[in-house]
Protein: Small ribosomal subunit protein uS5
Amino acid sequence: MATQAVNKVKSSDIELKDKLVAVNRVTKVTKGGRTFSFSAIVVVGDENGIVGHGLGKAKEVTEAITKGIDDAKKNLIKVPILKGTVPHPQKGKFGGASVLLKPASEGTGVIAGGAMRSVLESVGIHNVLAKSQGSSNPHNVVKATIDALSQMRDAVSVARQRGISLDKVFNG
Structure:
């Protein structure tokens, strides 16, 4: 599969909403007892085609979430949305998790579970059929969903890349 340029976006002057996907408590046992710390997976998006994910680790939950939001703002990508859904079926993979996204008609809603749902809602997709296969680890599911979304292309970008008219893309 050919690698393509991912549409990176700068976080300045964009109104981003954050969603907490998962919080994990980690215990480190030392001579002096147990030390607890937290890791938080956060997804940010403007609900209009821009989304990013981040991981924050700290001794307190609120601090971990704040760090996760800052990390997510550094990893923003632009996703093409067509009539409130994805432009075409797409598979994404990361680690043991693979996801499948399919376009859906108006009124279907977001048919996705857990970590995938928060990514799709943050990007602004309102109608989609999605299936998570393999690992249900939220870290990998979020990254696999972002991978699938980053591979999405709309008809205009396909026409521009091939150097042909938009009409020729559809009528061959």
User: Anything to note?
Assistant: The CA atoms of residues 90 and 151 lie 8 Å apart.
